[in-house]
Each structure stands twice: as C-alpha cells, then as structure tokens.
Fold this protein.
Amino acid sequence: MSAHAGGYSADPRIRWIESLPWIVAVAAFFALPEYLSLGARILIYILYALSLDLIVGYAGIVTLGHSAYFGLGAYVAGILAAKAGIGDPMVQLAAAAAAGALLGIGTGAIILRTKALTLLMLTLAITSVMLEIANKATALTGGADGLSGVIVAPIFGLFRFDIFGKTAYLYCLLALLIGWWLVRKMIYSPFGTSLTGVRENSLRMHAIGAPVYWRLVLVYTLSATIAGVAGGLITQTNQFVGLNVFSFESAGELLVMLILGGVGRIYGAFVGPVVYLIAQDLLAKQFPEYWYFGIGTMLVLVVMFARGGILGILDSILVKLRRRP
Amino acid sequence: MNIALETRGLCKSFGALTVADDIDFRLESGARHALIGPNGAGKTTFVNMLTGALPPSSGTIVLGGEDITAMRQAKRVKRGLGRTFQINALFRRLPVLDNVALAVAERCGVARRMLRAASAHGDVREESMELLATLGLAEDAGVRILDLPYGKQRLVEIAIALGLKPSVLLLDEPAAGVPSLESHRILQVLDNLPKHIAILIIEHDMDLVFRFAQRITVLVQGEVLVEGPPDEIARDRRVHQVYLGEQHHA
Amino acid sequence: MEAFFASLVSVAFHGTALGMILYVISVGLSVTMGLMGFANLAHGVFAMAGGYVLTTAISRFGAPFPLALVLAFAFVAAASVVLERLLYSRLYTASDLEQVLFTIGLIFIAVAVARFIYGTLQQPVVLPDYLKGQFALLGRDFPAYRVFIIVFSAVMVGLLWFGVERTRWGAMVRATVDNRAMAQSVGIDTKRLFTLTFALGSGLAGLGGGLGAEIIAIQPSYPFENLVYFLVVVSVGGLGSLRGPFVAALLIGIADTACKYWLPQYGAFPIYVATIAILLWRPAGLAGRHA
Ligand SMILES: Nc1ncnc2c1ncn2[C@@H]1O[C@H](COP(=O)(O)OP(=O)(O)OP(=O)(O)O)[C@@H](O)[C@H]1O
Ligand SMILES: [Mg+2]
C-alpha cells in the first residue's frame, strides 16, 4: 500500500513528496494574500480531519459525533476570551485542548464499550447533548445568537492578529504542522499499527492479548484533544462561535471531506478539506441546492466506485502508469 | 504429570440450547491432545470459553493452577494461552509480517509505544521473520493477506498464535479446507512445535488426529462421551456409533 | 390540582400521538437494520418524501385525504424498491462506514431535491373538515386529528404485528433476523425478502411522514433534523424487534412532549441523556438480545 499505513516494514522517514503540502501552503501565503482567511479555515479543517482520520481511518471507529470535541474546544476558547477576559491565545488553546481531552476520555470510556449502531447512536446523542447545552446555557454561550466579542491578544505578546489574517494563517499553519507531526509519528509507531490491527480484526486483537478497549480510549482521547485544538483555532480566527460547530451537518461535512480525500492515509485529510472548502467557497453561495446535490452525489459515487477517495484514485492511476513499460 | 489447563463442571447454553454440559477436562503440560466430535458438538464454543471470548454459564477454568474463569482475555494470553481460529481471523489488509509482528509486539510489551517507529523495533521484526521462515512463509512477508492463497493463510493463522510463545496452544481445525499439499506442510509444522507446549487440537480429519494425538476426547452435544488414548478411542463402540451415525445422516 | 391533571392528560395524549408517528416511521428502520444489518441513516428521507407526496396530492391535485395517505405509502414504497435494487443491495456486505457515508449522501441529495422543488418553507397540511375541530371524550375535548392519528396508527401497528406473527412472510422475516445463514440454507429467498421488507418499511415511513406532517413539519432539512429521533427509537428499542421500538417510541413521544411542556428551558437535553443512560444500561436496546 502506498497509503500511509505504518507497520513493521514501513519506512518512517519523511519522503520529499510529503513536503508538498507545506510548500503549497507557504506559496499560497505569498501568492494569494486576499484568500488568507479561507486559507486559515482550510488549515484548521485539515487538522480537524486529521484527528478524525486517526479514529475512523486507522482505528476503525465510525462516529458521527466528532463535532462534540471540536465544538467544545471552540466554545471553551470563546468563553475564556469573551466572558473570562483571558485573551492569551496559548492559554485559550491549551484550555480547548484540555476540554477536548477531558470530554474525549469521559465519553470515550463510555461509548467504546459498545459497537456498531449503538456506538454510532451514542456519538450522535453526545453531540446532541452538547448542542442542547450550548443552545440553552445562553448566559455563557450566547445561545442561538452565538458568542461574539471574542478577543485574542497578540501571540506571546508579540504577534497581533491583523485584519488581513496573515498572523492567523501562519499561526494555524504552525498548529497544523505540529498536529501532523504527532499524528504521523503515532501512525508509524507500534501503537498505530495495533490500531490498524483493531480496525482489521478486533476479535484477533483480543486473542493476541491486546487491551483493545484501552487502546481505543487512548486514541479517541488523543483525537478529541486535537479536535479541541482545531475548535479553539476556529474561534480565534473567526473571533466568533455559533451553534453550528455542534451541528450534525458539520460532523457530516467533515466526514465528507475525509472520505473525499481518502480515509486512513494521512494526506486524505489534507486533500479533502482543500477541495471541499474551495469548491464550497466558489459554488455553495450561488447554488445552494446544487451544492448539496453535488455533495450527496459525490458521496454515493465515492462509496460505490472509489472507496479510496481522491488519493485512492491517484494511487491507482500511478500504479497503472508504472506497469506500462 | 503437571496439569496445564483444566475445566471443572463447565457449562454453556445459548437460550434453550446446551452447548457445553458439565465438561471436566484436563490438558497435561506438553500434551498432544485432540478434541473431536460431530459438527455442532460445541468444540469451538469450548475453546471460546477457555480463552475468555465467551463467558461460561457455570463451572471453573484453571490455567497453570490459577483459577482464570473470570479473568479477561488479554490476561489469559499473558499467562500463556494461545489459540487459532477455525474461520481465519487475520488482519486482511496488512502484510503477513505485520500479522505476526502484532502478536510478537503484544507479547514483548512494545505494542503500546508511540514514540519510535514500528520498523525501528528490530527485535520484533527479526523474531517475526524467523517465525515466518520456520513456517516457510519468509518470501510472503510483504504480501497482504488478501493476496495470499488460502492454504498459506492457514499457516499465518498458526504463525500469529506462535508469535505469542504460548505454553498452551488451542488449535481449532488448523487444516480444515486446506489442499493436501499444504495440509502436509501444516502437519509438519505441528510435529515440529516445541515439546513443552501443551496442545489441544480440534480436527475432523481422523488420520491426522490419530497420527498426532496421544490422547483424545470425544465431545457429543456438549458432553464428553469418552476420553482416552487413541487405540482405546478407535475401539470404542459408542464413538463408532456417533461417527457412523453421522455418516449415515450425511 | 385539576389543572395539573388536565395537563397530565394533555401531555399523555399528545405524547402518544407523537410516539405513534415515530413508531410508524421508525419500525421499518428497525426491521431492515435487524434483517440486513444495514445502517440506513437515510430512513428519514422516506418519511419526508411521504410528507411531500401527501401535501402535494392534497393541495395541488385536490386528492381526498385517505387517497393521499395511500399515495404516500405506495409512492414511497415503490421508489424504495428502485433504490434498494439499484443501490442499497450493492452495499449489504460493505462496512458500517461505507453504509453510513452512502446514506448520508442520499440525505444530502434528498435535501437538495426537496429544496429545489418545494423551497425551504414548511409544507402546510390541509385537513379535511371531518378531521378538524375537537373530539369529546370523557368530558374533555381532544383535537380530532390527533385522535385519528392514534387510532389509525394503532390499527396499522395491529396489522403489522399480525402480519409478522401470522403470515408466511412474517415467519421468514423472523427466521432471517434470527439466523440469516440458516434461513438461506432452508431455502428462503433472502434477496426477495429484503426487497419486500425494505419496501414495506419505507412505505410505512412514508405513511408516517404523511400522517405526521402536522406534528413533524415537512421541510427540506427533515431527514437531518429528525434522524436522531428515529435512531433513538430504533437503538433504544432494539434492532430487529417490533415491540421494543414501540415501547421506545411511546416513551420518547411522551417524554419529549412532557419536557417541552414542563421543562422547556432544557430543550431535548433530558431525552438525549435518558437515551445515553438506557444504551449504557442495555447496549442492545430494551428488547435487544444479549450475546
Ligand atoms: N453465539 C451463539 N449463539 C447461539 N448459538 C450458538 C452460538 N455459537 C454457537 N452456537 C451453536 O452452538 C452449537 C455448537 O457450536 P460450535 O461452533 O461450538 O460447534 P463445533 O463443535 O465447533 O462445530 P464444527 O465442527 O462445525 O466447528 C451449534 O449448534 C451452534 O449453532
Ligand atoms: Mg467449530
């Protein structure tokens, strides 16, 4: 598999092609200054999709509730900034991460005892609970109006968030770089391999003495932590949080991005959000009906014909090209 | 002789269906023991209870002198209990090497590490490769299970269990459905297993059973019909009836 | 005291009506999930389609109400056969993730189509005169249409249960839910059984969507917004069961109405928490079998 599967015979060194996303990101920074806010959004969604890929693509946990952790991170950062007057972005981010981690371990420990539909249902229910809380605790969250007045102080007291979004873009890029490095390291480690083992055959993992449940709780918590950070970032760059961070549509959209890029291959989480969010920016506003229709059709087609997503298609094209003399 | 594994009054029912009925069973250390019986006799269920995959309805299971009836599956493995599956339970999209290395890594306690790369754990790799070599699978190390012929998949099934270095090994029909060339290979592997491992093999192929086993237990409808050395079993009228009866139906 | 009693009766009544609707919509989901193991998140699409068929038949073509109900059932059932044969059947052996994604895709498509044809506004339901007004019972007045919903659904539920208990089709369904391999080996044509059952379940969802259009508003985001409710009914009730989801649907209908009435400040929060608690207590649902 040319996908990034890790394992005991995989070479963990970073290949030159893996620098491509970073080159593109830096080039975009200089070449497309008027699109930096969209760019930051894409970077955040890549981080968010990466956290989802860890549990869906590698550990094989099917969830519709990942927005619970993203949304919590977003609200925690927002509430700190708007209500508690804590403007330091690092503190906000750390709090968002901690909140994601706590909710991740608490809910993960409960729901990962179940499987299949029950698990799916529980993830949905947890997100719905979070949505209800955010909706009803208006004093803290602003309810349906959302939470505005999010103030973010300069990073380390030095770098101010400017109106062009330059600082925000670089800040998100750095966060993504760290997140990517951690996720990649994990995937290539024995732990990551054991996760793919669980995905492939949890019956057998039990039979070789793996503490399957604890491994899943651990990866779920890590993933929730990263999602919490992504949520914190979205609040900081938008300087606003709304209920939509918890919506089922947004959890669905994230899955769509991941699937579009390719599941269980790290860089699918890069390609998906880029394609999806740019297409959304170009099309969704003008043609909302067609947009949803297009997304739906694409999902059906991907599941029917191209289960590896865009990267899967590229892979098979490359394989065919190589076979030719 | 030491007792490696023992059950006392082990029972299991699925609703009204009793699949294990008061099974008293002993496996001596280093034993070559076969468990035979017609389809649906409850052999696989028995193994599932031994490994902890299924909780028994009542009765106790003792491994190496310790009551493990309520012990979690993972802990039993750490105590030296290994098994194979009647229906392949492999990591289908992973290469053969990883299938075995996953088991080796669990045994060595490195499986939960996340800082160094898996492939940097040379000891796990080497041990897995050696194991594959002894099973004649060295050349297939990089092949995904999906792309492997069925006979070799059965060998991987055994290799994973051996990667755990078990002291008690439960083999659930290791040669079922394997073409004769490869079933020969499996027999060879079984013969070469370290002598100290206590082996319980479930098998329908009577030639294999009588060649391999020093002791045989016959299970019929969840009950132990008879147990003894092969020649006694071969002469036992009740066993003949069960098997002839079965052939009669078939 | 009298006022409290009155509100109690009112909550029980409206809750039962909602519960009945939820059951008629969700029972098909329970059976198909139990039967085929298919995680069909798009089930709400069938209910929504039924709602649109009903409202369109009445307001555009002036169809009488009973005919519109029949049409909602028949149209959705027929459409679902096409979908099942063309798409669903190819994914019976696919992974949970693929089934989930595929059905989310269907939801997106349905939402877009509904928006395209009907716009984003909710569809008004024009009731016939004989279902308007109040119905007096035991010295109280009840909205006639809700009474009709409860009675009509009860009849449908009775018919369905009778069908599953007493007909050959029902026996085959029960056998296949129990043990698919066994059912196949005794010669049950599971492929046809799936199609038929899927059509019936979807048709019922269409019927429920139409019948309940006044309670659960028909608008494009219907399949998204109500998905959780349908899934709660099925998972709390127990996959593949008929009676479990019935109990669950009534519980949820009444609990939801009670919460809206007495604890509006908490929204649907108590429902979700109760769902989580029940699933933790019995992961396979109230009527689910425990392995
Ligand atoms: N989870 C289960 N629920 C209900 N019944 C079961 C379950 N597992 C097994 N059974 C039943 O228990 C009986 C014994 O099954 P088991 O698989 O142990 O038989 P076996 O002796 O291994 O047969 P074979 O030789 O065919 O492998 C069978 O009738 C089977 O249908
Ligand atoms: Mg068996």
User: Anything to note?
Assistant: Chain B has one domain: 3-244. Chains B and C do not touch (no CB pair under 8 Å). The beta strands of chain B are 3-14, 17-28, 32-36, 58-63, 66-67, 81-83, 168-172, 198-202, 215-220, 223-228.
